[in-house]
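[09:14] KT: can someone run the structure on this one? pasting the chain below
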Amino acid sequence: MSKINVINPKLAEILANAPSNDVARQDYFISIAKEEIQRRSDELGRKLTCCVNTFGCQMNARDSEKILGVLEAAGYVESEDEHSDFVIYNTCTVRENANNRVWGRLGYLSTIKKKNAQMIIALCGCMMQEDIVREKIKKSYPYVDLVFGTHNIYRFSELLVQTLFSDYQIMEILDDSKKIVEELPIVRKYAYKSGVNIMFGCNNFCTYCIVPYVRGREKSREPKDIINEVKKLAADGVIEIMLLGQNVNSYGKGLEHPISFAELLQEVEKIDGIERIRFMTSHPKDLSDELIDVMAHSKKICKHLHLPVQSGSTNLLKSMNRRYTREHYLALVKKIREKLPDIALTTDIIVGFPGETDQDFEDTLSLVKEVEYDSAFTFIYSKRTGTPAASFENQIPDDVVKERFDRLLKVVQEISAKKAMEYTGKVVDVLVEEVNAQDPSLVTGRLSNNSVVHFAADKKFIGSIVNVHLDECKGFYYLGTMVTE
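[09:31] RB: done, structure tokens below
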């Protein structure tokens, strides 16, 4: 954590009077920020605006809701325009192109800031946990006002106040934190659905993945805290919950009174008002028979399971440190399909991992054909500095990777189209999510299996589950008709 060398008297007084309790402390700093934001708004004769841009996973999206909650509580008004008074990028570092996008946007923000003396630029998230990134910010982006990492989101209001009362760059990065502080203001993107963090960090150390280094070790929230949060959300009109964690299947192992993820799901299912339960992400090595049974008997858990395979080659899986074999994964899929015949299976696949032979790739292709995923996220291997795989020999030439990637994508799309066609003509339950972005006479909804359908309906149905006839499959989505009888 960087040291603050010079603190003005006003900030010193504010810090000295702050409570020690984490929740009370952040409430205190929100009140201080609110006074200062109001003063600046009065001075300018307008409300100050904020723009929160999120890169990466569902957990980042959830963190951004907390950040926006604090900003709005402090008096900022949300805007999607980066010509705002406070702009923050919540970053991802899983792949190199995510980093490059942030660097590109920062260059653009520098020109905006020159025209707005009030503007604050902040960076947070996984990318900020990397030493090389922070050094680059200090050297090349001195106009960035605030930098913090993944372990101190709960301190955002305090960091905001420090930034408001300082004229130098604030940078606070924690290597890890055992604290879990969730009692913060939140601005949800949707009124009817919400993510809920059940755990943080990862213990798996896949050789290609930077996440354990930037998110830290696994920490599970107490089940009573999760249940209480879901109950509050249900009372506020939320009907769909997404339970979030880097590896939800290992939830509960580090608690004083350990419980399994399957047991947690059963408790969430008991909550009145919650009609749909989703979760991600599941690691195959930890997916238990107990969880499959709970899913099979549940009336609320959605018929969708994201089960990242990454490769169909046992040799590559070993090199990736995935800790399962091709045979284990296929046996697991068979078991899932026997208990849940209508489950939609999706996956992640990496192409071009160091040492990937033609046979390794053919093994991946054959596994995809055997499993028949409803959809798959396919990625070209991205070398991440600081991971073991970055130093592996036999990095695959770009032209070879591109050819393999195109072949895999073609197979994945053909299978996805075939699987989607199987639902055409059926009447299914659909959660209406929003007015269609391209055609305002339509709404967009989501099936239990996570597929998307567009159909004519009044926007009053947004946030409701309705019956829809799937008239036509358009590949990645359906066109449907709402059934009113």
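[09:33] KT: thanks! The CA atoms of residues 314 and 325 lie 5 Å apart.
[09:34] RB: yep, looked fine to me
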